[in-house]
Amino acid sequence: MKNKRMAVLLAMTVTALSLGAFAACGGGDDGPITTGELVKDENGNVVFENVEIVCNTVVSGSDKDAFEQIVQQFNIEHRGEITVHTESIGDGTFENSVPQKINNNSNAPDLIMAHQKVLKSFANNNLLQPFDEAMELSGIEIDLSNYAQGLARYSSLGEEGSLYAVPVDAQSMIVYYDKEKLEELGGELPQTRAELLELCRKAKEKYGSGFWPIAWATGNEYFARYVFPTAILQNGGELFNPQTLYAEWTEGENADSFRNAISSLRELIYDKGYAQYGRESVLTELLNGNCLFYLTLSWSNSEHLSGYADAKGINVSEVTDYLGATSISGWFATDPAEAEANVIYGDSHFFAMSRTVKDINRKAAILEFIRYFTQNAQIGTQWAKAGHVSASKIISESEEYQSDPIVSNYFSRFYPDLDEFRCMELTPAFKEVQNNLISLFVATVSNPSSTQDAIQAEIKRSQDEVNVMVDFVK
Fold first, then answer.
1. 220 close to 280: Cβ distance less than 8 angstroms
2. What's the short name of a Pfam family annotated to this entry (predicted)?
3. Residue-wise burial string across 315-330, b where 16 or more C-beta atoms lie within 10 A, e elsewhere
4. What would the pLDDT profile of 422-443 be if each residue is shown by its tens digit?
5. pTM, whole model, 2 decimals?
6. Cβ neighbours of residue 433 under 8 Å, at least 6 residues apart?
7. Are β-strands 173-178 and 291-297 bridged in parallel, bridged antiparallel, or unpaired?
């Protein structure tokens, strides 16, 4: 980057007057404003000079350190050119505090790293601007064909022909398995629900009543946030109608999907006794060899591998001899021929640009950082090891990413195909959908004696709660 300053600079001046051609991309009285000028070298690359950008990120947990290390690495490599400042804001407050900053233009971020589900609401409230104009002027291109289409399809936020959000990654519940026990049970991982049930039956029969074929922490909110929607989608359901935004949980085939999803979980817990319910932590089952499958959160991967190594007195590099990885694809689909049987539901971080950004140099610097984060194999590998499998094909198809032992042995197996990964879809009522799915899960799965009539009543009640909010936001 430094040699750009040494190159013969071409005075490629982009003035405010020349930006009129891009008014359709957000100009005019009601749209974002672009000011300033760009300078490019003889190769057409933007020359950055002490540009500072502020990024508000929802990354605030155990993966925060990894994110900040990547940002620091970018800042070192772009010293004197671009500096990224970050502020981490928790998931519970992000969707309220960040819009307030942008609306008031007070400490507003330039760049947003948010979960996909919040961005439709941000766009509807005119808090974002598309990247198209900045890409055209800077020549810094983000080509969505280089990203997993299962996630890239959300990038327009419903504004066809515009790029509002760039997918970064995917994260959901992950599955470890005990390699020795699987080998003792025949060595084949289940590909369908029927195969899962049969394997669990053999495990229970072989290892006795103190053994749990599946250890999962259903007392953790993320279980309801990720596994329950996965079960609904695998049975062909929709979380809401993408055209009307209304929840249709009691109608037609969708009603069957919801009932089958609930039954699939209850069968594993109550009817078969293959899994527990209501536990906050089941790590002891894994460490003590009392389970075949262990479900946990992807961003806890490093902690779990280290914890397992410490408990067994081995090096982390040796854990792969004992713990394998698989996915929950097909686990809940009562019909293996269902088109969505292998879908996995979760969250995905996306980058978006605040409406408040005006200077074209800052807009170009944002694109440069996004390109660095989502197209650099080393960075993508670092971020995957922190719990977030890359949405970028440039990264996921690279030799560095594929050969990394953590990525290849775990993350590539947790999420074998991101085109079968699903997020919330686009709705400003995402919070109401998510919260009522969680309450429906608790109401229908926590009580083993719930009747079908009681379950149906809870589905109806939760559906109606969602639709009250849809009426309000529409």
1. yes
2. SBP_bac_1
3. eeeebbeebbbbbbbb
4. 999 999 999 999 999 999 999 9
5. 0.91
6. 239, 240, 247, 424, 427, 466
7. antiparallel
